[in-house]
Amino acid sequence: MTAGCGAPDQGVELPVSTDLSKETVLAGRVVAGGQPVAGAFVRLLDGTGEFTAEVVASPSGDFRFFAAPGTWTLRALSRAGNGEAVLTAGGPGLHRAEVAVG
Amino acid sequence: MSREDVLVTADWAEKNLGTEGIVFVEVDEDTTAYDGGHLPGAVKINWTTELQDPVRRDIVDKGQFEKLLSANGIGNDDLVVLYGGNNNWFAAYAYWEFRLYGHPNVKLLDGGRKKWELDGRTLTTDVVSRPSASYTAQEPDLSIRAFRDEVIDSIGKKNLVDVRSPDEFTGKILAPAHLPQEQSQRPGHVPTAINIPWSKAANEDGTFKSDEDLRELYGQEGYDEAKPTIAYCRIGERSSHTWVVLHELLGQRDVKNYDGSWTEYGSLIGVPIELGAGK
Q: Do residues B124 and B159 share a domain?
């Protein structure tokens, strides 16, 4: 069976197979007024603003993407409002950002 | 076919929940979303285990499709309204499969789960049980399904529309960016394919763009309306989304979904592959 295209669980922990010396992982949390927002739709946009991927944030507001080095925009849509954050990944590794909505 | 024949709005869906003769079906790869809350009265179909054969790599056959719909209480005369997560990717795949097996009356909920949730509409965890039906499918309509040999024969002849992200198209990555890059087949795209990501056809809330915007988009990207078309992605669900756009919304006549898509093509021995932007 081929691995699907649906978003895997957006837990805090990365899959054990993740090699952070090679992979560029963008991770973070959606918040409103400092509190995590569960179930927000988080869109990864590339340096030109073009859509790249989308996941649903976990109950703790966490999300992650497996991307490439570069400058990315994380845009979150939620019932509490929308918001975005810019994240620059200079190279492989785990890069984190918080996206405030409201 | 007009837009109203293909899509229903969230408002329409809300007003028609529980209506006799209308069956709402949530389609996802992972049905935990459904289990956590679904449209009242909706049944669920698991894309991975129920729309594909559990052993061979293929879609379910006519008999399996009949069994699935019968078990979910869907009759030949019912209007089936499909929706799901991931901007309706898997619902669009199901839509294509319902068309393939000749279901006459099937529509997509425009915006899927995302718009429904963002609108704050009702979701329930109530267990849904419909009395089983006796469904009879048609023979598969292969005029909307492409296989690998046809794709190879179409190089330089038909519109080959690769709907993956630009980085997947150019060969930089092998899977969408929300997934670990674990596939082993070769990266790249089918030579002469044009890259029109599925996402360009959708608004931020998951609804389809207007017919006018869609025509403009495909025109700008070098899509030739006079030629037959084959759409593909990685596993055939994002290309189903584009198949809905081209065949159903824009009314292009000869449009096929290549559901084998890149996981098949990129693993074939000896076929031509192009890397880079390709334009």
A: no
Q: Which residue of B has its CA nearest to A66?
A: B177
- Of B99, B124, B140, the position where a domain reaches its end is B140
All residues at 6 or more sequence positions from A76 whose CB lies less than 8 Å from its CB, including other chains: A30, A37, A40, A41, A42, A43, A57, A82, A83, A84, A99, A101
Residues of B in contact with A39 (CB under 8 A): 117
CB contact under 8 A, B177 and A44: yes
Look up tokens 């993740």; give the residue.
A18
**Does A79 contact B237 at a Cβ distance shorter than 8 Å?**
no
Count chain A–chain B contacts defined by CB atoms under 8 A. Answer: 97
| This model's pTM is above 0.80 | yes
The domain containing residue B13 runs over which residues? 3-140
Domains and CATH numbers, chain A: 24-100 (2.60.40.1120)
pLDDT along chain B (279 residues), means of 10: 92 97 94 93 95 96 98 98 96 98 98 97 96 98 98 98 92 76 78 97 97 96 96 96 98 97 94 87
